[in-house]
Here is the input.
Amino acid sequence: MAGSITEGTKRIAMNSEPIKIGLLLDVALPDGSPLREIQAIELRFEDALASGEIDRPIELVTRQAHGLPSGTGANVVRAFQELAREDVLGILGPGITDNCLVTQPLAESYRIPTLNFPGTEHSRGEYGFQFQLGSLSDEGPLIVNELLALGHTKIGVVRDQSPIGAEYFDYFDQACVRNGLTIASDRRLSPIATDANAAVASAKESGATALVYLGLGLTVPAVTAGLKALSWDPPRFLNTAFLFGYIDPAALAALEGWVGVDMIDEENRTYQEFLSRFEKRYGYRPLGPLAPCFYDMATMTVEGLRWAPELTADGFRRGLERAHQLPAAAGGEGTVMGFSPWDRAAYKGRDWLLFQTVRNGRYEPYAKAK
Here is the structure.
């Protein structure tokens, strides 16, 4: 499919059936409305047709499911099956680890490539391609390295009692052991808990000099409330639950003073180019890494279609395996993405994960300790 579309080919494209790509959303705005960030996918698909990267339109077939942890896995299964019945060549999503663990075996049994965006590596498979919007395996060690650089040796942990919390903690704990840090307190909470006072009190009473939260992030407001109730203001770090502040003002307020793992770098030229095109098309600039991640997923979709030996689901899978070294809008400057027959992790590079902090209700770059 590579090359420019001639006028004759454009006429063919207008008369051709579109390529169907599914979008399975398991995240929404706090009021339940769809995420505007999906416009980033539409933008990339429009550009691909206009530039001649593809020779027919891509039709985005969307299903939104109220999945785990507050909904059900059955809702996600139904949404996936509905998309499969639409004869899509691939599915973008879902994004929450719990739901990706539900859909991973479905992708294999239906033989439909899924480009998901959770933190877990277990969403990968022959047909599972992961865009690491965070990483359950990498973020814990990243936080440990910063705690070590700051001189902390006794850490309090509050984590979700869920697959996300468990996987995060495994890698965090091993990094602590390797670097000589002590987990002075480890308290687990329901991922939808609204009271974390006892867990925070346990961390304070343990003598911990820093606090770490590991999980999906719905309980962060409760942890912040617990800190205020105890008048305790330790250095505090969290994983990519930090990203909820971009879409929810209440979550942003609860993140005041936290340092979190992020994937936005204002110095990333691919990100800035994306923002400029997005603003020209839609009249505003999206916040946070979800829109650039969606844009990256769409870019890889286009590249997979370009490399596909035939326009089938399995052809799309083989096309994705041949996409390499594409500049990414998410992550730090120099982050690239690609797949191969034995590689299902999209993002690559030294700084694809970054730290930021929230001060005075705004996201700001965080200066790492030397």
Remarks:
- The longest strand covers residues 182-189.
- The domain at 139-238 is CATH 3.40.50.2300 (Rossmann fold).
- Residues 290-307 form the longest helix (18 residues).
